[in-house]
Amino acid sequence: MPRRKAKNPMMPIGYAWMIGLPAGIIGFLLTKREVDKNRLKQLKVRQRMRMSNEGEYEGSRYRQHKEDLKQER
């Protein structure tokens, strides 16, 4: 008859789950928040770029270059 109580082999696995699951969920939420912040920044930058590109430009070198190419043909 054994004198000592046997160790439960599932205890370390239970502790790993108790620590790992909440840590994984918190890590996921923090990463998601960071990704959303970066996406919002990129969206704002794109909107600013779009706004700055609207309108007529006089004397644009690109337009002049296109007209030069048309005249050569």
From TrEMBL:
The keyword Heme does not apply. Keywords: Hydrolase, Membrane, Transmembrane, Transmembrane helix. The chain crosses the membrane at residues 12-31. Pfam families: DUF4748. Residues 58-73 have a biased composition (Basic and acidic residues). This is Hydrolase PNKD. Residues 49-73 are annotated as: Disordered. InterPro entries: DUF4748 (IPR031833). The keyword Hydrolase applies. It comes from the Eukaryota. Coiled coil: none annotated. One of its GO terms (molecular function) is hydrolase activity.
